Amino acid sequence: MQNEFSAEQQQQLLEKLNIPFHPDAISWRVTNKSKDGKRGCVIPYGDQRAYTDRLNGVFTPAGWTRVYNVTTLSPVTRTKKNVAIQTGKVIVTCVVTIHGLGSHSGSGEMWADDDNAMTRAEAQAFKRACCCFGLGRYFYDFAEMWVDLDDYGNPLRIPTLPKWALPAGVVPTKTESAAPARSQPSTAKTTEKTKPAASGLDVGLTQRIEGFRQGVGDALYFEVFRRGGPARNARELPSVDAQHWVVKQLETIERGIQRVRVLAEDVHENVFYGVLDAHKVQSIDKISSFEVLKAVVTDLQNATQGVAA
After folding, report:
1. How many domains does the chain contain in total?
2. How many CB atoms within 10 Å of residue 135?
3. Rounded to whole angstroms, what are the CA distances from 199 to 234, 237, 238?
4. Is residue 106 within 8 Å of 129, Cβ to Cβ?
């Protein structure tokens, strides 16, 4: 399709997509828990409807489209609550096209035994495709945030959204903090904030580092910062040397992830998901640590050698 917008117009439209969502459209999800279950790592996310509303508001409903492609893998054996079950994988690819700007795709996957597998996989794929246009991209800029949990595993408090994660003119308040439905409303704890890039940092390297997050997953991404020093994210690194060190670590992780994907094609899916289950990994982008990544690669290599033999 011929480009309908000038370069300046394209930039203006993309800037509108990059504007953070209103706090009312933000929810929080617990992704990891401490061993005693009293603390949890929370991340903010936007509902699929918020993405749709933004696209409709900027381009009108006629100005963009989305197309889904669904595939399944079955049977697959996985361990659920310490019991081996036969299930499958639902894999969804979504292509979002904005007339005059182009197309981007994203993928999502869920276990088929999940009651909302299709809905969740579709939403994941759609939002990842939108992220390529910059819509919702800022969610990947949040540092790790840990809060106290109630007896049901829900946050007792949620972090206050930092200024850079708010639309212009919006000030976070109790009612705008978007607490999960079952959590107890209260004032936010210490504001968790990603600091602006420090003086002397290479902005290009900062952007490059942040670009790794979606590909390697949150756990591995933040583990690099934990191992490297006090910085919690790319914008808090103390020097260009530190930036280069982080890039090198993330490149190593990225190669490991790519190796897992290549090896996965050489073994039966039951073997592949059996390896993931053995290391308590739900999907490739949720590998929890360097050690687990190495173990997964080793086990898959051994499995492929067994197939070859």
Report:
1. 1
2. 25
3. 13, 10, 9
4. yes
Cβ atoms within 10 A of the Cβ of 45, count? 18
Give the per-residue SS3 of 171-224.
CCCHHHCCCCCCCCCCCCCCCCCCCCCCCCCCHHHHHHHHHHHHHHCHHHHHHH
Nearest-angstrom CA–CA distance, 215 and 188: 30
- Please check whether residue 92 lies inside any domain of the structure: no
Residue at 249 is within a domain: yes
User: Among 172, 183, 98, 200, which Cα is nearest to 149's?
Assistant: 183
pLDDT tens digits for 185-212?
Answer: 333 333 333 344 444 788 888 888 888 8
Residue 132 has pLDDT above 80, yes or no: yes
Q: Give the tens place of pLDDT for each residue, 81-117.
A: 777 788 888 999 999 999 999 999 999 999 888 888 8
Q: Which pTM does this prediction carry?
A: 0.60
Handedness of CA 137, 142, 144, 148 (dihedral sign): negative
Could you tell me the residue range of the domain that residue 248 belongs to? 195-309
Please check whether residue 26 lies inside any domain of the structure: no
